[in-house]
Amino acid sequence: MSGCTVEGSVHGPFHRLSFLRGTPMGVAQMSVYRVGDTLIDTGGTPIGPDLVAALAGDPPRRILLTHQHEDHVGNVALLRRHFGALPVHAPRQHIVIIESTTRVPDYRAAFWGHPEASRGLLPYDPGDEFDTGGTVLEAVLTPGHTPHHVAFVANVSGVRYALTGDLYTSKPLEAWYESAAEDMAASHRRLLPKGSMPLVVLPTHGRVKEDGVTLLREAADWLDREAERVVRAAASGPTSHRALAGTLYGHLGPDVADAYSGGEISRAAFVRSVLAPVRTLPASLPT
Ligand SMILES: [Zn+2]
């Protein structure tokens, strides 16, 4: 065991396994989801032994990945060693990254661990569907957190469930350096159901959100409003992303995330996500 606290919960046909782990930098929490024979995302390597233990009684027969980051793909190789040569489906554009990345910056490794590279992944594309044995998951293109990010969506008994990976964040100003604000707002709206169907948001990090319609609408509207402010400030103010972030958000105090992440998670990255949205990988750091 790796010392995690594991919490299980059920949301329609989905089983969530949430792993909490103490680190010198605070508690790291990440989730994976199970529906039928399929596991969605695999967490980071520090939770590997607990994940294997949690799945051992009824191992999955297939893995779907929402995107390339180490807290989603880290345990693919481990799960294959324990449960056989599972087919693993990943966004087409992310496969080369997943198959070659074995190191991440130290602050990320402290939270999520270095990933173990895994070979022979199968590409999928937005619009593809996966029948998990009763529940059909649709891959929906949802860039914004990172290019080519995918959410998996299923409509079950009049309820829409969205496995949103890292698309939704409750702290949008602590933006990831591969972000694109306009794309993120559009992705939030793309997940909304038609008519009055309720939406349950099942994220990797943070709690499950039962009122997903309001949550994603308000998040998209916030992004639109804040993007307007950034554009206005850029028209008459300083030119670097970091200086603009200081002008707009300095009253909030020091940007702690910027300091510990070397700019990968920062208000400057949010400003850049508006003014120069990232749409290809790899991304540079904000200026
Ligand atoms: Zn991510």
Percentage of residues assigned to helices:
25-40%
Number of strands: 14
Rg, Å, rounded = 19 Å
Flag low-confidence runs.
none
What strand order characterises the main sheet? 1-2-3-4-5-6-7
Strand composition percent: 25-35%
- The sequence of SSEs as H and E is EEEEHEHHEHHEEEEEEHEHHHEH
Tally of helical runs: 10
Short description:
By secondary structure, the chain is of the alpha/beta class.
Structural account:
The chain has 2 domains: 1-125, Ribonuclease Z/Hydroxyacylglutathione hydrolase-like (Metallo-beta-lactamase, Chain A), CATH 3.60.15.10; 142-287, no CATH class. The protein has 287 residues and is an alpha/beta fold. It has 10 helices and 14 strands. The longest helix has 25 residues, at 212-236. The protein has helices at residues 48-55, 70-73, 76-83, 95-98, 106-112, 181-190, 212-236, 241-249, 256-261, 267-275, and strands at 5-11, 14-23, 26-35, 38-40, 62-64, 88-91, 122-124, 129-131, 136-141, 150-156, 159-165, 175-176, 199-203, 265-266. A hairpin with a 2-residue loop joins strand 10 and strand 11. It has a 7-stranded mixed sheet. The mean pLDDT is 96. Bound molecules: zinc ion. Zinc ion is lined by residues 67, 69, 145-146, 166. Zinc ion binds next to loops.
